[in-house]
Specification:
heterodimer, A: 438 residues, alpha/beta, 10-stranded mixed sheet, 37% strand, globular, B: 252 residues, Rossmann fold, 6-stranded mixed sheet, 4-stranded antiparallel sheet, 28% strand
Chain lengths: 438, 252
């Protein structure tokens, strides 16, 4: 299937896309379309996609939703994915549903709405943000996203404002063979701070494609905690990119929790100005025939920045995991401090991990380190637990859980940490072990 | 309690135990001494059911059942406890979590209900006093960053919580200073009872100053070469293992 055929398929979308009255956006979409036409979805021949083959996507027909086609979402099911004590923006099949969202009591100076509403009400603000935090090295998914995004979240927090309550963006897919192609924009003014959770879920058993791009701009000395919880169905395809541009002395703390999807690609890229701080924590778990790819990029472009990256992976059955962690220290970024660590646990002979740390250091006065480890459960530890009366399977699950739980413990939001622990326990059922003991 | 008859064990292709016979009655404390490489640790590992040991001859009957047929978790539930020479560090699993999981597995086997959270905590706190352990250790990861003495005390704590019938202490005294040795020994002594037996595997006599054995066996080159009462340990202390090696040499 050629890209031209793909475009023909998705061109039916064009009439329903938001912001058609904005010439600058039409130009942007046209440019992206041209680029997508030339490349299609990324190919394993591209270095950054070496370990993840998405050609299967080109053979499938994912139907974008029109506003009329949305399947009504069961409120109880939806509530099970919403976190307590947060403001929420719920996207169903790629479009914000304000009736399902909860923004009551949001301070008047803060904007949290759909991107389509923002294109109508604040087009100049959207224009000043859209595309400005994207990765320098674009690829087919980004072009596809720009050309066809149907909606997304738009969140703007003014200078000096501390948003005490977290905001949750809940991405829900309801239709088999559906497409949710969204672009979200988040901006924090100087000295502002906020917590943002993006959750990705689908109705049980359906197969669909999520292509979600989030661009984040952090003003001087702003601070954002960003959590991504990807628990798509085990038949889903997920491309999720988070791209961050950090101004001077800003702080970005990210947790990438990737448990679902048949094929998932998580990109987390950050560009740091002077004295900016970036923390990236990742936990990916895959079993069956799941494939999960984590692609991180930290660009230190100015001096005195610091970054700390810690990723752990657990691969069972025939699952395949990828960790590509790249840190670039640009020539002028002296006094950079960067650490990267990736540990992976293989639970079966057939599981596979491709771990590729890349440090490109172009400055001479920096402190950078990286470490990668791949291993299996330690038989000594299993025997120790078993010799205390715990059965083999539980012992192995306990050790696996413990390995993963060290990343979960880093989650600063109690409600989310509880959810994630529950996901872990569900994945590693441990006879007689309960959350209240933790 | 335990009847070991003519036990032969190989590790890879190397025979380590070459015909051990040992009978242990309820309430008895047996010390097994011997030089390095005599097979002491192999014996404790085989009894606990560790992988990598091949029993080529002999039987081990525990409470009337063939111990060697039981997987290690069943041995533990049936009351066999091995205090490790080198307790394993398990990051991410808290001490209290391990104790609860283990205790519930053992109680289930004995047909007892799970303890509720309150009773469990009361019980655990009482046991930590027995080994003079600070309660904060309960909430730390199993053995992670513990000193040698803390690890050994933690082993005795697990033993006290699980209330086994047969306790095997593999070189529990190694690496302990005199204070820690005394705490560990006091813990063990408080657990002595008419229906609980102990096997103390040790290189040195000094542990036996604190825990009085009923019987002392000397293991050399995979065989028990001498058996006696507590005075045998003192004799060994005085004359060293060279004397035993000579005896074995002559016998061979």
């Amino acid at each position: 299937m050629s890209a031209a055929n793909l475009i023909e398929r998705y061109q039916t979308l064009a009439d329903s896309l938001p912001g058609q009255n904005l010439p600058w956006l039409n130009t942007l979409r046209q440019l992206a379309l041209g680029s997508f036409e030339a490349t299609g979805f990324p190919s394993p021949r591209e270095e950054e996609w070496k370990y993840t083959n998405v050609t299967a996507l080109e053979k499938k027909r994912f139907e974008p939703s029109s506003s009329a086609s949305a399947v009504p979402v069961d409120k109880e099911w939806l509530a099970s994915h919403l976190l307590a004590d947060t403001w929420s923006l719920v996207l169903v099949d790629g479009r914000v549903d304000l009736a399902l969202s909860d923004l009551a009591g949001l301070p008047a100076t803060v904007i949290a709405t759909s991107l389509s509403a923002a294109l109508e009400n604040h087009p100049d603000r959207v224009k000043s943000l859209l595309g400005t935090a994207l990765a320098r090295e674009a690829h087919g998914f980004l072009a596809f996203n720009t050309a066809y995004f149907s909606d997304g979240a738009f969140i703007a927090i003014p200078v000096g404002f501390n948003l005490a309550k977290p905001v949750q963006i809940l991405h829900v897919s309801t239709r088999n063979e559906g497409l949710a192609n969204t672009r979200s924009l988040v901006s924090l003014g100087a000295n502002a701070s906020a917590k943002l959770i993006e959750t990705f879920v689908g109705l049980p058993d359906i197969s669909y494609l999520t292509a979600a791009v989030t661009e984040i701009r952090l003003g001087e000395n702003a601070g954002l905690d960003h959590y991504k919880l990807q628990v798509e169905t085990d038949k889903a395809y997920h491309f999720g990119g988070v791209y961050v541009k950090q101004e001077k002395s800003s702080r970005f703390k990210q947790h990438n929790l990737s448990f679902g999807g048949l094929l998932a690609r998580n990109e987390i890229h950050a560009e740091l100005a002077t004295a900016a701080e970036c923390e990236m924590n990742g936990l990916f778990l895959a079993k069956g025939r799941q494939h999960v790819d984590n692609h991180t990029l930290i660009q230190h472009t100015e001096p005195h920045g610091s970054s700390r990256e810690t990723y752990r992976g657990v691969l069972a059955d025939r699952a395949r995991g990828v960790f590509q962690g790249r840190i670039v220290v640009h020539p002028q970024a002296q006094k950079t401090n960067a650490e990267m660590n990736n540990r992976n646990l293989l639970l079966s002979e057939d599981a596979e991990i491709d771990a590729k740390p890349q440090l490109e250091i172009l400055a001479d006065d920096v402190k950078c380190s990286h470490g990668v480890a791949i291993g299996q459960l330690d038989p000594e530890s299993v025997f120790y637990l078993v010799s205390r009366g715990i059965d083999q399977e539980t012992a192995k699950n306990m050790l696996t859980f413990a390995f993963a739980n060290e990343m979960v413990d880093k989650i600063g939001l109690d409600s989310l940490r509880g959810r994630v622990q529950q996901h872990l326990l569900d994945l590693f059922p441990q006879t007689g072990i309960r959350r209240d003991w933790l | 309690m335990l009847k070991i008859e003519n036990l032969h064990v190989r590790v890879e292709d190397k025979p380590i135990l070459k015909g051990i016979t040992l009978h242990i009655k309820p309430g008895e404390v047996h010390a097994i001494m011997g030089p390095n490489g005599s097979g002491k640790s192999t014996l404790s590992h085989v009894l606990a059911g560790r992988d990598g040991y091949e029993v080529t001859a002999g039987t081990v009957i525990y409470k009337g059942k063939n111990l060697l047929d039981m997987p290690p978790e069943e041995r533990a539930r049936a009351g066999v406890f091995l205090a490790f020479q080198y307790p394993v560090e398990i990051p991410g699993v808290s001490n209290v979590y391990l104790l609860k999981a283990a205790l519930n597995a053992v109680r289930k086997h004995r047909g007892l209900p799970e303890l509720d959270a309150f009773d469990f905590l009361q019980m655990i706190k009482a046991k930590t006093k027995l080994v003079e352990m600070d309660e904060k250790f309960l909430y730390r990861a199993v053995n992670e960053g513990f000193s040698g003495g803390e690890k050994k005390r933690n082993e005795i704590l697990q033993m006290a919580v699980l209330e086994p019938s047969l306790c095997i202490l593999d070189e529990t005294d190694s690496g302990l200073d005199i204070d820690a040795l005394k705490i560990v020994s006091d813990g063990v002594n408080s657990l002595r009872s008419a229906d609980r037996s102990f096997i103390l595997v040790t290189h040195y006599q000094r542990l036996l100053d604190y825990i009085k054995p009923d019987h002392v066996h000397v293991l050399a080159q995979g065989r028990i070469v001498k058996t006696g009462d507590a005075s045998l340990a003192l004799e060994l202390e005085e004359r060293g293992y060279g004397w035993i090696d000579q005896t074995v040499g002559v016998a061979a």
